[in-house]
Design a protein that fits this description.
This is RNA polymerase sigma factor FliA. By secondary structure, the chain is mainly alpha-helical. The chain contains 11 helices and no strands. The chain is elongated and about 60 Å long.
Length: about 240
């Protein structure tokens, strides 16, 4: 049972970290279908924050800010996974794009352009771009998806830091950085604006001089390139 003082401190902590919930929700929303409401993400993130407040153990070494950030994002991802909103056909198409880009760029030894990728997939340019638009929502948080594959056996809670997890995180993060550096310039700029500067689709479109839907297509294409290169590293 909380004392009156404990309730006040908890309320203060909640007020302090609610802006973090909103920032993470906004960052995540820009790469999701329009059917995913910002309020739903914020609600899930708030639940994650409350869980963090109840479960945080200062003796484990991590700061509360780090612990809370992980729990907030994890709760949002759990909410999205529970909806299973991406059709199987779209998942299949996303894998087909990834494999096509990977195969083509291995053969060419360089980044392929859209026309080359479309030809590899036996499509015209408009069909390929529509496929990118359809599969963009399947590329949720690619780095976190990779991290999920590196979880130490027996550790299910993504908020738990272990030496194994930290090592995997560092290795994969460097691979991801290297992959981004190898992207075509416009896609590299897009990824920097998106993941580092945290601009939304409209803002990125203004910088690149393209529409929001085109930003989605370019993001999807960049992620396909990165997945292919990271898969090469695993082989």
């Amino acid at each position: 049972m909380y004392t009156a003082r404990g309730k006040i401190e908890q309320a203060d902590l909640l007020d302090e970290y609610l802006p973090l919930v909103r920032r993470q929700a906004l960052s995540m929303q820009v790469r999701l279908p329009a059917s995913i409401e910002l309020d739903d993400l914020i609600q899930a993130g708030t639940v994650g924050l409350l869980e963090a407040m109840g479960r945080f153990d200062a003796t484990q070494g991590a700061s509360f800010a780090t612990f809370a950030s992980q729990r907030i994002r994890g709760a949002m991802l759990d909410e999205l996974r529970s909806r299973d909103w991406l059709p199987r056909s779209v998942r299949r198409n996303a894998r087909a794009v990834d494999e096509g880009v990977r195969r083509l760029e291995q053969r060419l030894g360089r980044a392929a352009d859209e026309l080359e990728i479309a030809a590899e997939l036996d499509m015209d340019l408009e069909e390929y771009r529509q496929l990118l638009s359809d599969t963009n929502s399947g590329h949720l948080l690619p780095f976190e998806s990779l991290m999920a594959e590196g979880v130490e056996p027996g550790i299910e809670d993504a908020s738990v830091d272990t030496p194994f997890r930290n090592l995997i995180d560092q290795e994969k993060r460097q691979q991801l950085i290297d992959g981004i550096e190898a992207l075509p310039e416009r896609e590299k700029l897009l990824m920097g604006l998106y993941y580092q500067e945290e601009l939304n689709l409209k803002e990125i479109g203004a910088v690149l001089g393209v529409t929001e839907s085109r930003v989605c297509q370019l993001h999807s294409q960049a992620v396909s390139r990165l997945r292919g290169r990271l898969a090469d590293k695993e082989d």
